[in-house]
Amino acid sequence: MTLIPGTIQKLKLAREVSPYGYFLTDGESEVLMHYTEIVGHRPKVGEEYDVFIFFDSEDRIAATMKTPLIMLGEVARLAVADIHPRIGAFLEMGLGRQLLLPLSEQPELKELRPKRGDEVHVILAQDKIGRLVAKVAFEEELAEVAFRVPESWHNTWVEGWVTKTLKIGSFVMIDGGVLGFGAYGFIPADERTRLLRLGERVRARVTFVREDGRANLSMNHLKQVGRLEDSDRILEYLRERPGGAMPYSDETQADIIKQKFGISKGAFKRAVGKLMREGLVMQEGSWTKLRPEAQPGAEAADAGIEAADGQAGLKE
Questions:
Q1: How many angstroms separate the CA atoms of 174 and 159, rounded?
Q2: Does residue 209 sit within a domain?
Q3: How many domains does the chain contain in total?
Q4: Backbone angles phi, psi at 19, to 5 degrees
Q5: Which pLDDT belongs to residue 150?
Q6: Where is this region: Disordered (predicted)?
Q7: Separation CA 228–CA 211 (nearest Å)
Q8: Looking at the structure, do residues 163 and 120 belong to the same domain, yes or no?
Q9: Percent with pLDDT over 90 in the chain
Q10: Where would a tag sit more exposed on the chain, N or C end, judged by fewer CB atoms within 10 A?
Q11: Residue 17 maps to a domain
């Protein structure tokens, strides 16, 4: 038998070597299990134990009775415990030590890389010299562990973790709860309210359950709901602006609207259109402005005028 890092193997306890720990053997090779790696009762020489094989901090092969969160070749979602700007992200793997997710496995853009606390779907693999490393799990690996999205999820809000993010959109493993590993979904770029990091927790609405069992997702509300929220936000923004005016209108480019308000140009036009129909705003060229009656303090001024008229009527 060969001692394979990343796997659990049944080995016989050969001898104790104080002050280090125990040597275990498969009959051909030996591996050290430090005292700190013991779980439960003190092991006995001659007995067999299931141990996980790994590399210690000095790149020496070692054994532990602790159970890892991931095994060689398996897919698991691991939390980011620490970040090294030149090496990569370190993931918690349940052994009191961390697993490296190299920079080469992460997005090229720094803002799309995972942060501390994010959770990344990875596969446990070995590098060129046999050390254990994490590799990002992609569509083909995740499809094998994902379940089909139920039809009942249509138009419901779900949460999950970003597994891959591109210009065209972001792939998400939707939290399956008690149902299992998760379900696979996709947020198109025009349905994102912002760029999403690898491993980021995201909340989205299921817009369509596809025949292949996956879901199309959106971070936006339904149009009738979103229009109300968007128009309220734009109205509030205008009321905080000098003169109640902003240099954004139907003529403004979509990417500028997205950057400023976090919504699509279509959503912006619907929201402004609602405010125009209500007589609250008007557009002049590339500007959108509050009407005088919608200006801050206008209601108070009207109330003051009415009160003054009332007083004048009493005097007469």
A1: 6
A2: yes
A3: 4
A4: -100, 25
A5: 92
A6: 287-316
A7: 32
A8: no
A9: 60
A10: C
A11: yes
